[in-house]
Amino acid sequence: MQQIACELNLSETTFVFPPADPKHAASVRIFTPRSELQFAGHPTLGTAYVVRGDSEADRLVLEEGIVRCRCASRSAPTAPCSFG
């Protein structure tokens, strides 16, 4: 994953995996070209948008390195997040 992120050379690259807890939407790992991040806000929001897709779900949880990010939507595709 680190090699792919380095090759893409974007500020952050996310990789999405099945969650450890089946109640959560996904497990996410975030990389910069040089290192793995335990959490980053903008990549989390973008990943939540993509994971939610066309789903009718108004809430989802993403598992990240140091947090479980709970994202909620008010029937719009963008989702404000809370962390914990």
Walk me through the structure.
Strands 1, 2, 3, 4, 5 and 6 form a six-stranded mixed beta sheet that branches. The model has no long low-confidence stretch (mean pLDDT 87). The protein has 84 residues and is of the alpha+beta class. Strand 1 (13-17) and strand 2 form a beta hairpin. The chain has helices spanning 2-8, 41-52, and strands at 13-17, 26-31, 36-37, 59-63, 68-72, 81-83. The protein is built from two helices and six strands.
Keywords:
6 strands, single chain, 84 residues
Structural category is alpha+beta
Total strand segments: 6
Q: What value does the Rg take, in angstroms? A: 13 Å
* β-strand amount: 25-35%
Shape call: globular
**Major sheet attributes:** 6 strands, mixed
> How much is the average pLDDT?
87
Query: How many angstroms separate the termini?
Result: 25 Å
Give the fraction of residues assigned to helices: 10-25%
Low-confidence stretches: none
Number of helical regions: 2
Helices, strands, pairings?
Blueprint lengths: L1 H7 L4 E5 L8 E6 L4 E2 L3 H12 L6 E5 L4 E5 L8 E3 L1
Parallel strand pairs: 2-4
Antiparallel strand pairs: 1-2, 2-3, 4-5, 5-6
Could you provide a short overview of the structure?
With 84 residues, the protein is α+β, with helices and mostly antiparallel strands. Helix content is 23%, strand content 31%.
